[in-house]
Amino acid sequence: MNIQLAQGAPGARILAFGHYQPENIVTNDDLAARGVDTNDEWIRSRVGIAERRIALDNESMVDLAVSAGDKALAASGLTAGDIDLVIVATCTAESQVPNASATVAFRLGIKAPGAYDVNAACAGFAYALSAASDAIRAGSAKNVLVIGSEKFSPWIDWTDRTTCIIFADGAGAAVVTGSDVPAIGPVVWGSDGENADKIMVQDRNSFLHQDGQAVFRWATTALHPVALEACRRAGIDPSELAAFVPHQANLRIIRGIAKKLNAPNAVIAEDIVNAGNTSAASIPLALSRMIERGDVPSGGMALIIGFGAGLTYAAQVIQIP
Amino acid sequence: MAEVSEQTILAGLGEIVEEIVGVPAADVTPEKNFIDDLDIDSLSMVEIAVAAQDKFEVEIPDDELKNLRTVQDVIDYVQGLAAKA
């Protein structure tokens, strides 16, 4: 007697992206006016951010996720009834119990899907996308809604200029389905728990703390080999990339990795300028906005790489829907 | 690592600073303070330290960066480690 296995799809692809940002815009001048010891020039030169979106008290991380998921679903051509797995990547859940994804699914009218949350911090979307692709290929799911959603604002000390100028709120989502031709490449991922204290919230009563110099050094020295390896495993040369969408951590990190990647034909995502660092949401948020503006070609190859607290990182090549 | 002359370190550091922050190498003289005189911020100092590590084959950890205020500080630090090696 043997256990039967499910029959999965040969590959997986992203049907559509969607995103949502809170309406409330906070500029650098707004932060300075609140008494933070900083100014517009200082913030732009250090992290490259001009403005960020901050959710109001009546808008939760789950609300952001629902809004982004709804848009991705509408753009995908599928209906709620087609989705059989929902994965929410977040590290800013309001509550540990229950998870966000079951509630998000319910509010989107998705009936009884598999539903779980992923916490890989700013790498969360890339982890969740890999899980979605694997579930489809293994036959565990047919159509997956993957959402990166963060409401960082409650976890920020709004007098700490090493964090409050950087982190922001937002959500991005993707609908993933089976495909005869693979359109999501192998993930290259890893972690470094020895440096867990470099980005952390100590306990439920603490704010986010970040050792900016240490993170900057790690991000500008350790990640371009991961990005190159993701290209190599997908069989895509960096010169063939139409887009490079790294986690929107800091404009100087983005440009630093991009320079070492050497992808001359790729549009480099610099969504951080107007969106801030939205952690697990930043990659789908950036890519969704780039697609909406027509900055990147449908069918082109995009390299994504998420990285952040843990430390964790993950990268893969995807085909732009 | 064998002895490295002050001139070698100064020239190498000048190249690194010019490459990373665009300050002419000739302006990188021993008495210059990175922050006050060369207008280099903490993140650029990390990039300079990483490049200097590769060039001079020494470890420059983040904890050490706050002690490296002037060009001369870096020269002394690199020479000190090279002497121990």
Description:
Chain A: Keywords: Acyltransferase, Cytoplasm, Fatty acid biosynthesis, Fatty acid metabolism, Lipid biosynthesis, Lipid metabolism, Multifunctional enzyme, Transferase. Chain A: Homodimer. The complex is a heterodimer of chains A (321) and B (85). Chain A contains ten helices and 14 strands. Chain A has 321 residues and is of the alpha/beta class. In chain A, the strands form four sheets. Chain A has a five-stranded mixed sheet, with helices on both faces. In chain A, strands 8-14-13-11-12 form a five-stranded mixed sheet, with helices on both faces. In chain A, strand 13 and strand 14 form a beta hairpin. In chain A, helix 3 crosses helix 4 and helix 7 crosses helix 8. The radius of gyration of chain A is 19 Å and the shape is globular. In chain A, 54% of the residues are buried. Chain B has 85 residues and is mostly helical. Chain B is 58% helix and 0% strand. Chain B has four helices and no strands. In chain B, helix 1 crosses helix 2. The termini of chain B are close together. At the A-B interface, helix 6 of A face helix 2 of B.
Pattern of helices and strands of chain B: HHHH
User: What is the tally of beta strands of chain B?
Assistant: 0
Distance between the termini of chain A: 43 Å
Q: Name the poorly predicted regions of chain B.
A: none
Average pLDDT level of chain A: 96
A few lines on this structure:
Chain A: Pathway: Lipid metabolism; fatty acid biosynthesis. The complex is a heterodimer of chains A (321) and B (85). With 321 residues, chain A is α/β, with parallel strands linked by helices.
